[in-house]
Specification:
single chain, 207 residues, mainly alpha, Endonuclease III, domain 1, 0% strand
Length: 207
C-alpha cells in the first residue's frame, strides 16, 4: 500500500511547490549566506506569488552568483542595467537595488562580527502548532521585533510580514501544519540547529 505524503495545502500546486515544501521550506538554516539568499528571495517575492518566484529562482540564483553576499556586494550600475534587461529575472529596479545594498551591508556587518544567523535566531526556535492554514498569521511580535532590528541596521524591504516569512523559511518558526509530514521533521531539525548554534557560539568566543 502506498502511503501518500501529507503536505501543507499550498504545496500541492505543482512539482516546484512540492519540492520546495518537502526539501527547502522550513529546513533550519544557520549559515549567513544561506540566510542572505532566503532574505534576498523574500525581497524579490514581495507582492508576488510563491509559484512565480520558484519559476524564476534558478535564473535569479545564477544571475546573483548563488547570492554570495561578497559577490553581490560588488555589483555596479552596469550590472544592474544588465539584470533589468534579463527577461528570465524579476525586473524590479527597487528590489534589485535593495538586494545589492543588503549584500553590501551584510559584508560590512560581518567585518564587525555581526551575523544574520545570530540576529534571526536570537530568540531561539518556536513551534506554534498550527493545524489550519487560515490560523497562520501574516506577522508576529517576533517578526515585528526582527523587522525593527533589521531596519535599524539598514536592511531594506524587510518589514514584519517579510520577516515572518523569512523566519519560517529559515526554520526559526515551524510553519508546517501539524497535519503535515514535515512538521515533526522540522521540529527535530530545529533542536539540532539549536545545538549547532550553541557549539558555534562557544567556538567563536574561544577564537
Amino acid at each position: 500500500m502506498i502511503i501518500k505524503r501529507q503536505r501543507c495545502p499550498w504545496a500541492e500546486q505543482d512539482q516546484n511547490t512540492r519540492y520546495y515544501h518537502d526539501v527547502v521550506w522550513g529546513t533550519p538554516i544557520i549559515q549567513d549566506d544561506e540566510i542572505f539568499k532566503r532574505l534576498a528571495l523574500q525581497v524579490f517575492q514581495s507582492g508576488l506569488n510563491q509559484r512565480l518566484l520558484l519559476r524564476k529562482e534558478q535564473a535569479l540564483n545564477q544571475a546573483f552568483k548563488a547570492f554570495a553576499s561578497d559577490q553581490v556586494a560588488l555589483f555596479g550600475e552596469q550590472k544592474v542595467t544588465e539584470l533589468l534587461t534579463d527577461a528570465t529575472l524579476i525586473r524590479n529596479r527597487q528590489k534589485v537595488l535593495a538586494v545589492i545594498e543588503n549584500a553590501r551591508l551584510l559584508v560590512q556587518l560581518q567585518k564587525r562580527q555581526i551575523y544574520l544567523t545570530n540576529i534571526i535566531w536570537t530568540e531561539g526556535s518556536s513551534d506554534p502548532q498550527f493545524n489550519d492554514q487560515q490560523a497562520i498569521p501574516a506577522f508576529t511580535n517576533q517578526s515585528v521585533k526582527l523587522a525593527a532590528e533589521l531596519r535599524q541596521l539598514g536592511f531594506r524591504f524587510m518589514g514584519p510580514t517579510n520577516c515572518y516569512a523569512l523566519l519560517v523559511t529559515c526554520g526559526v518558526i515551524n510553519g508546517h501544519l501539524t497535519t503535515c509530514s514535515r512538521h515533526k521533521e522540522v521540529a527535530a531539525q530545529q533542536k539540532l540547529a539549536a545545538k549547532r548554534l550553541l557549539v558555534a557560539e562557544k567556538k567563536r568566543m574561544i577564537d
